[in-house]
Structure formats: C-alpha cells, structure tokens
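[audit] Reproducing an earlier prediction to check determinism. Same input, same settings, fresh worker. If the tokens differ from the archived copy the diff job will pick it up downstream; this log only records the rerun itself.
[audit] input (294 residues):
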Amino acid sequence: MIVFNHNIHFVDEPGLSSSKHNPELETVQIARNLGAFMNCQWLDQTEWMEMSLQKCRYTAEKVFGECLGSCRWGLEIKGVVAITWCNGSGLIEYKPLVHFSPERLQFWVLHTLLPIMFTLRQQFEFLHVGSVEIAGKPVLFSAESFGGKSTMTDYFIGQGHKLLSDDSLAVYSENGSFYAVPAYPFHRPYRTPEDLGYPVTNMATDLKTVHAVYLLDKAGSDAAVTITEVTGIEKYKAFHFTSFITFDFFKQKRFNFFAEMAKVTPTFEVTVPWDMERLGEVHEAIVGHSEKLT
C-alpha cells in the first residue's frame, strides 16, 4: 500500500500488503528480525507511557538529542511487539511478543511508527487532524481531543470527498508553500484502541498545497453554523496538535515550521452544533466557504 507517499511492504505478513505500488516512490519494508531489537545497546529511553491504552516506550542507541543522524531507534509496545529501525533506512525490523498479531503490527507501524520515523528523518511534520479534499483541494479539520474531527471527516467521506487523513497528516514546505501528504487508507469514526478502522477506497493520492484549515468549535445543538477567520496566536493553536510523543529537540523546529505555515494558510473557526442531524448544514457551509477561497 502507499502511505505518506511511500510504498509500505510487510514482508512476512502478506495479508497486510496490497497490490498498490508505485516504482517511482521509496519502499519501506517491515520484516521480522528476532534479535535486532534485543541485541542493540540502548543508551537512552523514555519512561513507559500510555498510547492507545498500551504501555509503550522509545529507545535509541545514542542520547535522544544526538540521534537525528544515522542512529538506531526502537519502539516497544509492551507484550505486543518490539520494533527497531535505523534513521534514514528503508527497513523496519520487529520481534513479535506474546500478544502479537499482524493487525496490531499494522496499527503500530502505520499509526505511530511512520510519523515518528519520517519526523526523525526531518522529511515531514505531522498534524493531528482530519483532512479531505473539497473540489480537489486539501482542507484540514482541527480540534481538541473528542472535538469532532473524525465525525466531520466521516461525514465528508460519506458525501464523496476524497480522504487525506483520518488522524495524522504529513505536511512539508517547499518554496514557501505547504503541501499535504495523504496518509493510510483507513478511517476510524469511532475510538477503539489499536484499530485503524474501515478501509477507504476513495483516497487522495497527489501531493497538493493545503487550501485551508477549519478549527471546529463544538457548540450547543441549537447554535447557528458560523465561519469566522482566525488570526494571531489563536491561529497558531490550530496547528499545534500532535498525535505522537514530542521530544524536546523537536520543539523549536516544530514551532518555527507551524508558525510559518500559519502565516500563509487561511484558517477559520467553524461553530459546529453538537447535533448529528445538523452535520449537513455544517458540510454545506464549509464546502461553500472553501470553494470561494482563492
């Protein structure tokens, strides 16, 4: 399958790989290696933290802040799988643990590992947003946790819009423009841990400039649907959400990147009545508003 503009191939789990392959893209291979993780001398590691209701930790063969070059990293999901890769390499290796399953491996690689790997490569930055195309242009839905991103994304998919991201969207800058990179072809309108959700066939494939960001503001069920431009520090806040651990040495670079993105990306707050029956109104308002933007 193609994820974040890379071919992703699960070498030892044929049920996870699809026939979609673009020879012009880099291929990342995920293969079993029982000793690669356990035999590495880890110099630095995080405390165990909870992600998707599992205990996880990152490890590195150097001090984290010195590990942006060629360095081996690890991600261990306690009792599930231990994963390791060398920064800059196209090979990810893993050791199944007692509660391993191919589906859990797929979740952790696509949902968590690839974003951290591409960030460490300094190839992409990531936003914790839902994203779809409106008239062929990427728009992003940003909100606090449980603020309606997945519900809004689900509704737009149902109306025929192409999906870019259900959860974590890769972005990069080039010549002052900021481009959205389609994520994995799954959508999860519910919140079951370690579950990528439903397969999506209407997936965006091209890299395009971000057209607009809509910051969802949950309101009462009888509230009017309004769209207002966001400026100043409130505009930056729409870009600061992230779905994976932020190491200290990321912070300044991320701040600078998203501060620049905020300067050039139209950003708007949408008042969203908390009533599923009114999602059609919100959809119509956002589509109409987006199509009028130059």
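[audit] rerun output stored. Observation attached for the diff report: The radius of gyration is 19 Å.
[audit] end
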